[in-house]
Structures are given as C-alpha cells and as structure tokens.
Amino acid sequence: MAAYRDTEPGSIFIMQQAQCLAIPYVKSMVSLGLSTIASSKYDLMAAVHGKKRMHILCIGHGGGSLPLFLASKIQGAEIHVIEIDPIVISASVQAMGFPGFSVMTPSGELALLEPDTINEVMWKGIHERLYLYETDAEKYVVENNNLYDIIFVDAYDGDDIFPNKLWDPHSPFLNSLSDRLHPEHGTVVVNLHADSDISNPSETVSYFYQRLLPMGKYVSRVCKAYKDVLIRNKVTRGGKFGCGLGFAISVPWVCNTSLVVSRGFGLTSGFVSRDMVMNTLVSSSVKVDHMLNLPFSCLEYINIKRDCTLI
C-alpha cells in the first residue's frame, strides 16, 4: 500500500499490508506452527490479546511478511528477525514497505531512535514489537540467551540451498537452537523445498524416510536432524523428560514441505499415530482460526488428506 502527505504529494510512503500473506508455504508455516503450539499447554489466547508475551524468532527475513503478520495478529508477540543479507533488508524496507524503525544496528540498538509520525500512524505500534537484525543465524543463536516459544526457519540461500550448518546435527547452530527453545512447549517450523533428486541417498537415511517423505536429497536428513537434536533427552522445568514429536506436511499448490518439531504436543498416549496427530491439529486449527480471525483457513493446510509423515 502507498500513501503520501497532503503537504508533500511527491513523497511516497510504502507500507506492507501486515494482515496479508500471499504465499502458500508461509500460510502453511503459520497454520501449522500456531495450531501445534495451541495443542500444547501454551496459552495462545492470552498472547493474542496481549495479556501474555509470546517470544518469536524468525530466521530468514525475505520481504518480512511473516513477522509483520504475526505481530499484527498476536498483540503479545515480540518478534526477533534474523537476516544475513543487507540487500534483502534494504529491499524489504525501501521497496516492500517493511517498517524501517524495526531495523537494529550491529550493537543491538534501534537504527532509528524514534519512529516518525507517519510510522506511528500507519503501523499503530506493530513496528515497536519487531526487531530486525543483520547477522548470521548461527552467530545469533550461539551468542544470545533468549528463550523462544516458537521459531520459524525459512533460510534458503541465493542458490536455493538450505545451508548445511543450519541442519547439521553436530553444528553449533542446531545445538544452540535447542537451548533457545522453550523446554515445555517450544515449537520449531521449517520451510523445506521438496527437491526429489535422490540419485545417491545417504546410507544414514533410512528407507522409511526416503520412501515416505515427498522430498529430495537433503530434506529427509534435515527432518531427522531437527527432531533428534530438539527432542532428545530434553528435561522440563519439573525435572521430567519432556515429550515431543516431529512431523512433515506437504504444502498445497507448491513444491514445499513444512517441518514441525514440538516439545509439548498435547498427546498423552504413549502410542502416537499419524491420524492422532492430524486430528489434534485439525481441532486446534479451528480454535486458531477463531482466535486470530485469519484471512484464510488453517484447514486448507492441515487437511486429514494431506501428505503427512511422522519423523
């Protein structure tokens, strides 16, 4: 959306529409992430109405539609966004209407000390809960001590490759990400491209994953790495070993898959099946639709007939 001052008709202010998500895979990430955390013991309703702080980390910025959408729909959301490419950040602000007031300096301070009047009027406080950092994702999660309720990862590089260091189970990134994730209800959602080129599958990837996941040479290993590192031997604050699960669901209309790993998914039974997971998600998605008054239905992305694989 574009606007200008009556006194300065030649000056155009570009503003991204915060309540609009145009890309199916981003809608899938939102639908699955929020429906999953709503299936845990986390009080999403309180966060939506600003009665509780919800700490969110977005790794990969793009145009900024995901963090803007979350901030507009969840009044209690405080969102940290990590982007390594300064050109991406500049383009999102100058050409795509992301609020410049949210950009942080390398020292961790706001680049602009105060938003101007037009930012205050147009964004209505949303920009004050967004923090966009130009930094390496691994460096960020290793060096800070924040604890996040939900983490979104969409970090393919310019060559359409998900960097190895962001999914290697022995990497500092994934192990530090585990420490940044809330031990009881923490949820991670990862966007993965469904490249089906498995000419030489690794012997470390079981036939089960190769056969069921609609993915290529990296993705099955990515799923297993995230599940193993984020769920293994995690202890809750009460001193008990935390439960958790991972699953991957194909995105309609595009060749993407959404991976979800949750530490607090609300299943009390020791046995977990695909149908149990999907039924729980479907039930929670109806509540999420109502709570957030979404402009799309989560059920489009959490349909019992969608390809879903437990990790």
What's the short story on this structure?
Keywords: Methyltransferase, Transferase. With 311 residues, the protein is of the alpha/beta class.
Verbal overview:
The chain has an 8-stranded mixed sheet with strand order 5-4-3-6-7-9-8-10, with helices on both faces. About 6% of the residues have low confidence. Helix 1 packs across helix 10, helix 6 crosses helix 7 and helix 7 packs across helix 9. The protein has a single domain, classed as 3-Layer(aba) Sandwich (Rossmann fold), CATH 3.40.50.150. The longest helix has 19 residues. It is an alpha/beta fold. One of its GO terms (molecular function) is methyltransferase activity. Belongs to the methyltransferase superfamily. Keywords: Methyltransferase, Transferase.
Question: What's the number of helices?
Answer: 10
Largest sheet: 8 strands, mixed
- The third-level CATH topology is Rossmann fold
Q: What is the helix content?
A: 25-40%
CATH architecture: 3-Layer(aba) Sandwich
Order of secondary-structure elements: EEHHEHEHHEHEHEHHEEHE
- Which class do the helix and strand fractions yield? alpha/beta
Highest-level CATH class: Alpha Beta
Question: What is the beta-strand fraction?
Answer: 15-25%
Cα end-to-end separation: 41 Å
The strand order across the widest sheet is 5-4-3-6-7-9-8-10
* SS elements, strand count: 10
Give the overall average pLDDT.
Answer: 84
CATH homologous group name: Vaccinia Virus protein VP39
What are the low-pLDDT stretches, counting only 5+ consecutive residues below 50? Answer: 197-201, 205-214, 237-241
InterPro entries: Lys/N-term_MeTrsfase_sf, SAM-dependent_MTases_sf
GO biological process, one term: methylation
GO molecular function: methyltransferase activity
Keywords: Methyltransferase, Transferase
